[in-house]
Design a protein that fits this description.
By secondary structure, the chain is an alpha+beta fold. The chain is built from 10 helices and 14 strands.
Length: 322
């Protein structure tokens, strides 16, 4: 008794009256997310806009309030934070630990879903199974007349297993169901790779919507009214320039999807393209309010299968000047 008490006292290490405990996997993931965010020096609002999520959602992930259900979001977050390949791998490792450490009642795994399905199957066919805890016997096939068959083989249920598992062990059909589910789960785990969902999302985001009957009044072009536009995905925080050959910024696109009305060739961009799209930004640059947000966006920031967009008219001008 004395030894047990001594061991119990020594196992408690206190600092300032509080016991030291290792952080949970969720807290460990949140700390690493905050570490990547702090490296950028950017606010929650700025990062949330770039990622297309709400500020409160990003804050929950950074504070450990919840764990992202898909790693593709964290991979995009890491890239926005200029994380290295090694940091992205470390982020994925911590995310997997946080996912698997969540309570089973809040995160039902494949094994639990398989067990529940098997239990429902068994309860739908109670007549095929014996009483709880009874032996299940396999009858031998009928042999030739007059020849005694082999003695029946008893299959006792595991004595220490719960009642649900005793029923599961006695059903060959259930074992086949569980085996099939296990193969599906393992196959999905082997096929999935980090970033696969993001590539699929990028491919589906290449489509743009051609709209007619809209009304965009362009005060910078003498009140010109645009009645047709093309809505495409674009990179948030994208700058708009005064003209296709200018480096003077006049506005910013904050939203991840925007409309564009025409295109024109201009100076070469970072990806080698020369197509520029005319649109109106979400907010004007300081001192550039007189342009009312109208300007040109490089095609490198617009997600489309081809540039220029098929069917889009060419701009009758090459600048946003009045």
């Amino acid at each position: 008794m004395v030894l047990l008490l001594t061991f119990g006292c020594r196992s408690r290490v206190k600092t300032g009256g509080a016991r030291l405990t290792e952080p949970s996997a969720v807290e460990d993931l949140a700390a690493y997310i905050r570490q990547l965010k702090d490296k950028t020096g950017r606010s929650y609002d700025a990062l949330a806009k770039r990622l297309g999520v709400g500020r409160s959602t990003l804050h929950r992930y950074c504070s450990g309030g919840s764990v992202p259900p898909r790693f593709t979001f964290l991979e995009q977050f890491a890239k926005e934070c200029q994380a290295s390949h090694a940091e992205i791998l470390e982020l994925h490792r911590r995310w997997v630990r946080a996912q698997t450490s969540q309570p089973p009642e809040t995160r039902p795994g494949p094994e639990q879903r398989a067990e529940q399905s098997a239990e429902q199957l068994l309860e739908q066919r109670p007549e095929q199974h014996g009483e709880k805890g009874a032996e299940q016997r396999v009858e031998p096939p009928d042999g030739p007349a007059g020849s005694p068959g082999p003695p029946p083989t008893a299959l006792p249920a595991a004595p220490d297993a719960p009642p649900g598992y005793r029923r599961l062990l006695g059903s060959s059909r259930t074992r086949w169901v569980l085996a099939g589910l296990a193969v599906l789960v393992m196959g999905g785990a082997l096929i999935w790779r980090p970033g696969q969902d993001s590539r699929a999302s990028a491919e589906s985001g290449h489509s743009c919507t051609d709209r007619s009957g809209v009304k965009h009044v362009d005060a910078r072009q003498g009140g010109l009214v645009w009645t047709r536009d093309f809505v495409c995905a674009n990179r948030p925080d994208t700058p708009l320039y005064l003209s296709v050959d200018s480096t003077e910024k006049v506005a910013i696109l904050d939203t991840p999807r925007s409309w564009f009305v025409c295109w024109e060739f201009g100076r070469v961009q970072g990806d080698g393209g020369r197509v520029w799209y005319y649109t109106r930004g979400d907010r004007a640059e300081p001192g550039k309010e007189s342009w009312e947000g109208w300007g040109f966006v490089g095609s490198e920031h617009v997600d489309a299968a081809a540039h220029p967009l098929p069917g889009m008219p060419r701009c009758p001008f090459a600048s946003a000047s009045p």
